[in-house]
Amino acid sequence: MQEIVSVVGGWVWSYWLVGLCLGAGLLFSFLTRFLQVRHFRHMIHLLRSGKESDRGISSFQALAVSLSGRVGTGNIAGVAAAIGFGGPGAVFWMWVVAFFGAATAYVEATLGQIYKEEDEGQLRGGPAFYIEKAIGQKWYGWVFAITTIIATGLLLPTVQANAISTSAEIAFGTNGTLDTILGTISYTKLTAAIIVVSILGFIIFGGVKRIAHVTQVIVPFMALAYIVIAIGVVLWNIAELPKVIGLIVNDAFTPMAGIGAAIGWGVKRGVYSNEAGQGTGAHAAAAAEVDHPAQQGLVQAFSVYVDTLLVCSATAFMILITGAYNVRHEVTGAIVFPSEIVTVATDPNSAGFTQAALEFVFPNVGALFVAFALFFFAFTTILAYYYIAETNVAYLRRYFRIPTDIAILKLLMIGSVFYGAVKTASLAWGLGDIGVGLMAWLNIIAILILFFMGKPALKALDDYERQKNAGVTSYSFDPVSLGIKNADFWENPSE
Predict the structure, then answer these.
(1) What SS3 state is found at 130?
(2) N or C: which end of the chain has fewer CB within 10 A?
(3) Pairing of the two strands 335-336 and 327-328
(4) 464 lies in some domain
């Protein structure tokens, strides 16, 4: 199974996709005149505006839902894997893909807003919707929707669930093993799996409102706590910080694993972490109640900063400052492990290196804190994945009616979470990479096609900036006057 997953993942994550992610971000940055810099302060202002309604959620709640998808295992275990396989220079390329990816996040989120629709009293949208309405290709929308359901409903949850169980096992030990049809499972992993699926089942049966209310509390609190702890680690070793930054920058172009590995792993884990270009953020963005589509686009651009430049950087600095990453001896070539937590048996895709870093500074509690943080980060990401999968089921339901389709989705996702929690990290990450890569291919090609067809996201930005510069107190959006077709929700807004 592992070999098949590795081969397919290699096809999906070729250098063509790496170039596509970086190229699209660079293109949209220039086209938007680097909105990620020009509108940075305004992004923060927008977080405080907007209110939820019976059919939609607030801008902040949409940010929380999208951040729950962005801030997860990729920020902790993913960063460690990028450093382990691509060298410290991979962190630099994660920064690059985040900076340019902010523009990509704006484009896809704004498109999600423009082409959203009301479905059974809820606002829904995403790549499948704007592919069909703006490009006019239903089959393409169906392909994206089906791919996304498989990716977010079955493949990606395995990564998050595995991160929870593996970090718990590192922190608490195995506590014995049990032979099952799924192989030998430690009691710690089994316990973690049961806890996660139980809580997940309770929340996902409550709908998007419950998901939004849970994530808006958990995500900001845990992200802040994690960053504060990381700052503490950096301050504890402040003398090493200039060396670490120099190591990251220098290794980005002359890395020990080769520049291709640094760029490849940096972009792969960067996209996995911040999800810019993947299309996932567009689903949460579409559910927000806003006066103008560009407002939520700017909010989602800001979320990329939070994810990569804050949380991922925090992880990277902790690992590199404490030396808690797998490096090869210059003479023997053997892998050197920095602590008792990280051993030859430690999967580089796990959070073991991050746990070792914190344990170095906070003995006996560091590994526990990472396990605790990962539980909340990964769990809220699973919630975001469910919402995305449900949105795409709702999209397909307009054409294909399957009885109890949502119930089937919930049961399949619960099964996927349990499976991921008890299997190996490498297999889970391999499945997750395939899901992320396929979605990125389909979505980035779609938004590039839309650029050449009509530039709706850029027209929305220009319109918003005109109103902002004019000092309006209440923004409005008229797609017809801008030459944007099939934006049915905005053409006939219902109160």
Answers:
(1) helix
(2) C
(3) antiparallel
(4) no
At residue 305, φ and ψ (nearest 5 deg) are -60, -50
20-48 pLDDT tens trace: 888 888 999 999 999 999 998 888 888 76
Start-to-end Cα distance in the chain: 51
Smallest CA-to-CA distance from 435 within 204, 203, 279 is with 279
Domain CATH for 101: 1.20.1740
pTM score: 0.82
Q: Assess whether pLDDT exceeds 70 at residue 130.
A: yes
- The answer for 151, left when phi > 0, alpha when psi is -120 to 50, beta otherwise, is alpha
Q: Determine how many CB atoms are found less than 10 A away from the CB of residue 154.
A: 21
pLDDT of residue 493: 59
The answer to whether residue 114 scores a pLDDT higher than 60 is: yes
The answer to whether the beta carbons of residues 206 and 383 sit under 8 Å apart is no
Give residue 192's domain range: 2-454
DSSP conformation class of 84: H
The H-or-E segment that residue 13 falls in is: none
| Residue showing tokens 């490498």 | 426
Number of domains comprising the chain: 1
Classify 62 in phi/psi space as left (phi over 0), alpha (psi -120 to 50) or beta. Answer: alpha
The answer on pLDDT for 96 being more than 80 is yes
- Is 476 a member of any domain? no
Residue 224: both structure tokens together? 């802040």
Residues 203-254 have pLDDT tens digits of 777 655 566 666 666 766 777 777 788 778 778 778 888 888 888 888 887 6
For residue 118, the cross-strand partners are 123
Domain-embedded: residue 481: no
Q: How confident is the model at residue 257 (pLDDT cuts 50, 70, 90)?
A: very low
Burial, 287: exposed, middle or buried (Cβ in 10 Å; 0-12, 13-18, 19+)?
A: buried
**SS3 string of 457-492?**
HHHHHHHHHHHHHCCCCCCCCCCCCCCCCCCHHHHC
Per-residue three-class SS string for 139-170: HHHHHHHHHHHHHHHHHHHHHHHHHHHHHHHH
Helix (H) or strand (E) holding 343: none
Residue type for position 74 = G
Res 140: pLDDT? 95
Domain membership of residue 468 (yes or no) is: no
DSSP assignment, residue 57?
A: B
- 425 in Cβ contact with 452 (< 8 Å): no
Q: Which residues of 6-29 are buried (b: 16+ CB within 10 A; e: fewer)?
A: eebbeebbeeebbebbbebbbbbb
